[in-house]
Amino acid sequence: MTEERIITAAVVTSAEKGDGPELPKLLGISQENGIEVDTIIGDAAYSGKENLKLASSQNIAIVARLNPSIAQGLRKEEDKFDYNKDADMFVCPAGHMAIRKARQGRKNIGKNQVHTYYFDVEKCKVCPLKEGCYKKGAKTKSYSVSIRSDIHQEQISFQETDHYKEKAKHRYKIEAKNSELKNVHGYGRATAYGIENMQMQGAMAIFAVNLKRILKLKG
Predict the structure, then answer these.
(1) Is 126 helix (H, G, I), strand (E, B) or coil?
(2) Between the ranges 64-68, 72-76, 104-108, where is the mean pLDDT highest?
(3) Angstrom distance (rounded) from CA 118 to CA 94
(4) What gap in Å lies between CA 150 and CA 164, rounded to an integer?
(5) What are phi and psi of 94, to 5 degrees?
(6) Closest CA to 101 of 115, 87, 121, 122
(7) In the prediction, which pLDDT does 85 show?
(8) What is the pLDDT of residues 97-132, one digit of tens each?
(9) Which of 30, 58, 81, 171 could link 8 by a cystine bridge, Cβ 3.0 to 4.6 Å?
């Protein structure tokens, strides 16, 4: 969405998927629609390492706070596991969400603590992607977060700047637009089953709110 509150791109996914991996697609669609992007404003779901690297390569600033777990440290194999902000859990490459998490390590002993996320090992045993991910016979499958990367350090520093804080004030526009879509135009409830139907419903709702906004801006 632009600062004028015109929606420029949308992607519909099933509920267990994280928002972060969709950012490159949303950015690409917006740019194809003629939008010049110099700043992206969003929530913690969009501040993953790959998104930060993509934005940096295009000289785009990401105004999105690092997830507290990632702010404490860098995820191993981060490009494979995705963080779901709503559940505060990680999702594996096969789409299975962790079932619990635990903090490990002691504070103030010179070492970073880690958050460890545990997965349903019964699903891992029959997973088609288990090779290289799940060790046969293992009783648990976990995924830990530790040690910050340079690009995360840069983002942490950026979060403290006046420019970041000023841009972050505009995020309410996004929440307001979501509220309009859901509460005024019925996008808070599916009218039919399936991704394709949700895409159609979304296209109609977005067309309506964009048309209203364009008319208001012209008026």
Answers:
(1) coil
(2) 64-68
(3) 14
(4) 18
(5) -85, -5
(6) 115
(7) 81
(8) 999 999 876 654 445 567 889 999 999 999 999 998
(9) 30
- The size of the chain, in residues, is 219
Ordered by start, the domain boundaries in the chain are 74-147
Sign of CA dihedral 34, 175, 22, 64: positive
Of the candidates 10, 19, 27, 13, the residue with the CA atom closest to the CA atom of residue 48? 19
pLDDT tens-place string over residues 160-207? 899 999 999 999 999 999 999 999 999 999 999 999 999 999 999 999
Q: What is the pLDDT of residues 158-168, one digit of tens each?
A: 998 999 999 99
Output phi, psi for 184, to 5 deg.
-100, -35
Position 158 scores a pLDDT of: 93
Backbone dihedral angles phi then psi of residue 158, each to the nearest 5 degrees = -65, -35
DSSP calls for 19-40: SGGGHHHHHHHHHHTT---SEE
Please give the structure tokens belonging to residue 33: 């629609």
